[in-house]
Amino acid sequence: MPELPEVEVILQEISNNFLGETISHIIVRCPKLREPISEEIYKIKNQIILSIKRKGKYLIIKINNGYILIHFGMSGNFLIFSKKSFFPLKKHDHIDFIINNKILRYNDPRRFGLCLWTKNLNNKFLNNIGLDPFDKNFNGNYLFIKSRKIKKTIKTLIMQGRLVSGIGNIYANEALFASRILPNRKAMSLTKKESIALVFNIKNILLKAIKKGGTTIRDFHKTDGTQGGFNNELKIYNKFKKPCVNCGNIIQCIKQENRKTYLCIHCQK
DNA sequence: CCTAGACCCTGTACGC
DNA sequence: TGCGTACAGGGTCTAG
């Protein structure tokens, strides 16, 4: 569920609720995430939340003695609720952070997420990831220069390359469609003009999605909670066999890196 | 080095 | 109703 925009919304919600507060306790019910949660996590007890930032889809929570690093994987989710309210445990409620009079609860069915304490940000998770898409240094010129010798496809590059972090399958599809670039083009084949357009559309689409609001935290009042605010804005993702919004031709679907890629061979070149 | 593919895990949707 | 299969918003590791 959490795309970069939802992680951004989660960041804002956590900031509003917990900035400056002390983490009094943490309960780990299931430590088996992408990396097993180690005993080190208990170092966050009695620490104050000083700042919260995001890099790609990673959440970086600064506390007195280091950082808490959070990633939501495919299915991770945070809920915030008052300690006084009755909130029964659900399946896959792996972690509770008890902060002041509230509980921040981490739920993750597929357990591809991540939660760890780290002394500094010099670790294998953050060291090799690219610029955040909103970083000023992520511009058309940067993408053009950096992609000159890259033989993999442009979609693969923006999704998992080391150049830029946090662009998921949905937004990779959407940004390439908006830029009229075929996702299976070799990265090195992009012109400078196309690179500029692609970077513009990545930033633009992510920004729009953030404004629409992720639903991960806010939805905990609702019962369904599956519809993301941006779902209605999607132009090509999940539109297999449907007419292209620009030209009416049928959207095709291929597989790249085991992920679905949607394309309009008429609009995208 | 680079790239494609397998893999981690559970829930859901769909065909038979 | 029940069972088997494919697939899902991510990232990492490894084989070639």
Give me the secondary-structure topology.
Elements: H1 4-18, E1 22-28, E2 47-55, E3 58-63, E4 66-71, E5 77-82, E6 93-99, E7 102-107, E8 114-118, H2 124-127, H3 140-146, H4 154-160, H5 169-178, H6 192-212, E9 252-256, E10 259-263
Antiparallel strand pairs: 1-2, 1-6, 2-3, 3-4, 4-8, 5-7, 6-7, 9-10
The chain binds a DNA duplex (16 and 16 nucleotides) through helix 4 and helix 5.
Q: N-to-C SSE series?
A: HEEEEEEEEHHHHHEE
Strands in their spatial order, largest beta sheet: 5-7-6-1-2-3-4-8
**Low-pLDDT ranges:** 219-226
Which strand-content bin applies to the residues? 15-25%
How many DSSP H or I helices? 6
**Computed Rg:** 20 Å
Q: Kindly state the number of beta strands.
A: 10
Q: From the helix content, strand content and strand pairing, which structural class follows?
A: alpha+beta
